[in-house]
Amino acid sequence: QVALLDIDICGPSIPKMMGLEGEQVHQSGSGWSPVYVEENLGVMSVGFLLSSPDDAVIWRGPKKNGLIKQFLRDVDWGDIDYLIVDTPPGTSDEHLSVVQYLSAAHVDGAVIITTPQEVSLQDVRKEINFCHKVKLPVIGVVENMSGFVCPKCKNESQIFPPTTGGAEKMCQNLNVSLLGKVPLDPQIGKSCDKGQSFLSEAPESPATLSYRNIIQRIQEYCDQHHFQEEKTL
Amino acid sequence: QVALLDIDICGPSIPKMMGLEGEQVHQSGSGWSPVYVEENLGVMSVGFLLSSPDDAVIWRGPKKNGLIKQFLRDVDWGDIDYLIVDTPPGTSDEHLSVVQYLSAAHVDGAVIITTPQEVSLQDVRKEINFCHKVKLPVIGVVENMSGFVCPKCKNESQIFPPTTGGAEKMCQNLNVSLLGKVPLDPQIGKSCDKGQSFLSEAPESPATLSYRNIIQRIQEYCDQHHFQEEKTL
């Protein structure tokens, strides 16, 4: 059982990417019901509360934090194995609030996404710095948009060049895990736009293999983390 | 004379992209002095206030707004023709504050950047919606990452496919101008990482031609806007 919580309040993309646009949140006796993609995958996003997908949520920090608190307190997630929280970029209200509100729950850690260029890595170093400051473990880093193979001539181009060594070098320097590199595949964008699962649509793509590997490594990390927590309890 | 103000407080990329990393802001009798790239281009960013480029600014909205106010009030920009404000994505504190603090200055308008996929266009529709709500004119939309030409076989790939017609269709539907499309060129990422001007480094690139066109269209818009404002005064 997996729950996916989108706390990008001003730019919620999860409903579209999960094929759930137009869905509404329902109130039940035990709170808000998430929207289910499949039986074992429930989703919550501010997108489900808007009357149109183009509506802007023009809210300052405190209002955003209030909704995040409601998402964590008032949604009846049921009995879940994983709660995945998707955040916007940055180190501000959304990040501080979710870490604070979940502090008693012993969050397993953060998965941090970057692209290969130094301009992105610089932001990611700030995010890692943030995790250290708030004592949130870093599960690892994923390098996205990691090279493109021309469908015609099979030549590989580094469209977002790793001028300073990419995520690999950064992870070595900061002593965090590199969970994997996901190559650019136009089908990824198409699947997101259509709300389809890229992993089902393109099961043979190198990007799919990379995603599967990354998921497995995260699962192993969480299993290990729980085992150690049980030992210390 | 151009001034560039970076109000992405938690992810300032302007110092690196302008080749100004390690520069510091100096206090003068008339306020803070911007950092100059060239004589006619002054820059201000929270990046100049950090002791290391990897330092995280872990601030909630009100503190970010306070710094934006300081940037607008306490920086001695000198006599400038253009003030360009670079914002993070979203429709929250930074955007509300800059529009509010500059409301008496009659801002010319917003230039909005997207990529071709629907997932990005959805966020951009929210930004356009925001501009309408706060009565900020929309100068136009730029489509970034708009196709990639393989350097080996010259075949063009839509790496971020415009599944719903891209920025062009969206601009038609919303009755806003499309300022141009910038193709993917690996040299752009390299120039940003090295703090060099892509326009000087790759003067013949189709992306450079596109940038030049876009700049010209923005200048024309601003000239027109000022002319009309003078007429109404």
UniProtKB/TrEMBL annotation, chains A, B:
One of its GO terms (molecular function) is 4 iron, 4 sulfur cluster binding. The keyword Cell division does not apply. One of its GO terms (biological process) is iron-sulfur cluster assembly. SUPFAM superfamilies: P-loop containing nucleoside triphosphate hydrolases (SSF52540). Pfam families: ParA (PF10609). Transmembrane segments: none annotated. It comes from the Eukaryota. Keywords: 4Fe-4S, ATP-binding, Cytoplasm, Iron, Iron-sulfur, Metal-binding, Nucleotide-binding. InterPro entries: Mrp-like_CS, Mrp/NBP35_ATP-bd, P-loop_NTPase, YlxH/NBP35. Component of the cytosolic iron-sulfur (Fe/S) protein assembly (CIA) machinery. Required for maturation of extramitochondrial Fe-S proteins. The NUBP1-NUBP2 heterotetramer forms a Fe-S scaffold complex, mediating the de novo assembly of an Fe-S cluster and its transfer to target apoproteins. Implicated in the regulation of centrosome duplication. Negatively regulates cilium formation and structure. This is NUBP1 factor. It comes from Lophotis ruficrista. The lineage of its organism: Eukaryota, Metazoa, Chordata, Craniata, Vertebrata.
